[in-house]
Design goal:
alpha/beta; five-stranded mixed beta sheet; 4 helices
């Protein structure tokens, strides 16, 4: 189960994720992100503090979002990844593609 909420802070949209981001919830995340981008949000910060699992389907969503924002001259930052999630991003090579910060405040 994935819960998504967001709030504008410092000129960015902070998207707070909680739960599992797996094949079942990745589509929900993708739709949410694309809707926010469609509404003009081009500076996104993802807060992973309450995420306990991420799958390759989720990685695909973040790649899609990053590519979409790149064409719009926007940005995406990932924050508050626990050690397990950070390992997933490191092993997949995605940590080279994204700005990853320890806290949301640092990302802002």
């Amino acid at each position: 189960m994935l819960t998504i909420s967001s709030a504008r802070r410092g000129g960015c949209l902070v998207i707070v994720l909680a739960g599992r981001i797996d094949a079942a919830s990745a589509k929900q995340l993708e739709q949410y992100c694309l809707e926010q981008i469609g509404n003009g949000e081009i500076r996104l910060v993802f807060d992973f503090a309450a995420v306990n699992y991420i799958s390759s389907a989720a990685l695909r969503v973040f790649l899609l979002v990053a590519k979409r924002l790149d064409t719009l001259k926007g940005s995406v930052k990932l924050s508050a990844l626990n050690a397990t999630l950070r390992d997933v991003f490191d092993i997949s090579g995605f940590s080279k593609l994204f700005a990853i910060t320890a806290t949301v405040e640092e990302a802002l």
